[in-house]
Amino acid sequence: MASLEVEEKPSEVKQNTIWGESKKMWAIAGPAILVSVSQFSIGFVTVAFAGHLGELELAAVTITTNVIEGFVFGIMLGMGSALETLCGQAVGAGQHNMLGIYLQRSWVITGITALCLTPCYLLATPILNLLRQDKAMSELAGKYCKMVIPQFFAYAMNFPIQKFLQSQTKVWVMTIISIIGLGCHVLLNWALVTKLELGLLGAAMAGNISWWLQVIAMVIYVVAGFFPDSWTGLSLLAFKSLWGFIKLSLASAVMLCLELWYFTAIILMVGYLKDPTLAVDSISICLNLQLWTSMVTLGFNIAASVRVSNELGAGHPKSAKFSIVVVVLTSLAVGILFMAIILGTKHEFPKLFTDKQLVIKAASKLGNFLAATIFLNSILPVLHGVAVGAGWQAYVGLINITCYYLLGIPAGALLGFKFKLRVQGIWFGMLIGTVLQTTILLFVMLRATWRKEVNQIITQKSNMNIIWIRQCFGVYVIRIINLLKDV
User: Fold this and answer.
1) Fewer CB atoms inside 10 A, N or C side of the chain?
2) Which residue segment(s) compose the domain that 441 sits in?
């Protein structure tokens, strides 16, 4: 395959500067952050309104968000994330005509996935009871889950559209739509929950309407003729090569689910503690803030994925590596800022969610753990973005299993229950897994040979099946062994 190998000639190497790369990064990350914050804030607003209804309502919404939706959200987002790799590399290679086909193919897959996962919402109460959660909390959460099913199908449409637009850096209209959607959500919650006193039904209705308004607006934007090169109308080609697309989608889903379910595991373990309602309420406040800051670092995740996939698709390995350095350092600086804010306000931020003094005091005690998590998560999502851009989803999934589920969760359970450190012990143990994963991914990124990644993408263009073969875990096990041999 020597004829397919790429050598980045001096004339092909972009004269990148930190300022130049930063402008490209912020052109993607800035709008992506606004979109992520706006869309996540829909859930943030719902939790805030539920918290003022009562402790049980707050716990029910929290358990729904972190356990039921946390489970299905990871799968849905992962199934849509294959688009991030394929569209990004297609844009870099100048194959814009494939983007619309990829989008429709992703819609087919996420739509089927949504149908298959709907029973998780319908059977939420039995599932939570099986997980030995508080009965009153499980009963109310089950009712709320049925109310928010329409939101789930909105996710199936929304995630692929986001990846389609982000890969082309056409994100400002999506940003405006998301901000308007958030404004509508606040007004709807105020009207339905506060004024009409519809309780959790009003909160669910507000979320359903807000999500579908955004999806409808973005679909109109895509099909209205603004993308003549990448959207040429509906095509039966969307149903071709579905199995190969599903393989990459599953690899993406595994990577993201293992990440998101890690936090779900925290909520579940906390639910086994004495006085679970207070424990769940306190940690949910911290995790909601952590997730809010993650929406900012998610913008850098998207920027890393788009920049790396574009540069690799265009055959520029040095530019891809330079992009990684710039986006990691930028995200790290933002993470340090957020960490300092949390440490300085750890006795105040719980008041955003509740006026119950016991909950405020319990959440304040977790401030240091929250700050440490925010710092680590300023790096980790960016490394995941690099992995998606390069098509390494299954590789990262293997690392997630080892660090999170073979080390972090057992350590958290041991400290929380055996040593009776309760919530603090559970969280500290799981931080150990996060530290190890971050260290391993940084090591892998530093050792990666980016020219080989470009060669593999070029080979894939001549043989479309190669990208799916690369997702086999055996290949990555061999790569890990080879990396360790080089140390």
Assistant:
1) C
2) 17-486
